[in-house]
Amino acid sequence: MTDGLNRFGLRLNSPLGQPSRARLHPFKSVPHPRHSGDFLRSAATMTRLFALLLLSSLLGACATPGNVGIRAGDGATVVLVPGQTARLANGGGLRYVRLVDDSRCPPDVQCIWAGDAVIALRWVPASGPARDLQLHFNAAAGPNQMDLDGRRVTFTGLSRTGAQASLKVSPVR
Asked: If I label 44, which of 29, 80, 86, 137 is the partner at 20 to 30 A Cα–Cα?
């Protein structure tokens, strides 16, 4: 500060090069808001910003598996990737957890056995305990459909890339 500049390169406006009593804002050559009449306005702005942040956090906390998911009406086929949830017409949620196994024959190759694909799902009914289940693509290797509270979910397809599973939802008759 020997040349009359403060640590931010701003010239001090006091006689004899003595430091000013008003502190300077680091990015502006005006007094800091705490040392001027702008403090009350900035405190009100900060309060509003805090309230907005709190409100957005509370709304984000409301995004539970009970109110999010892809709607899957009766007769519809829904395509899910691991981690996505389908919301069925009965209010339950069916989450595609992961691809367990894929031993299907590659395209354009003659295989002795067609192979199988297995997906893990988690059923969360509208009321009652959740349960884990697995569906097979090849019905000869294991169940490819499951009845879940009045809705039948059938494993109808699996993409070769991205593990996208197709599930058909229909009412149980």
From this structure: 29
Q: Helix, strand, or coil here: 22?
A: coil
Count the domains in the chain: 2
Do 54 and 123 sit in the same domain of this protein? no
- Residue 78 and residue 52 share a domain: no
Output phi, psi for 23, to 5 deg. -75, 145
Q: Write down the pTM of the prediction.
A: 0.59
> How large is the average pLDDT for residues 143-158?
91
Model confidence at 160, in pLDDT bands (50, 70, 90)? confident
- Residue 31's pLDDT band, with cuts at 50, 70 and 90, is low
Residues 20-45, mean pLDDT to the nearest whole number: 57
CA 6, 9, 10, 15 torsion-angle sign = positive
CATH (domain of 108): 2.60.98
Distance CA 71, CA 15 (A): 73
DSSP annotation of 25 reads P
Q: Which element (helix H / strand E) includes 11?
A: none
Domain assignment of residue 159, yes or no: yes
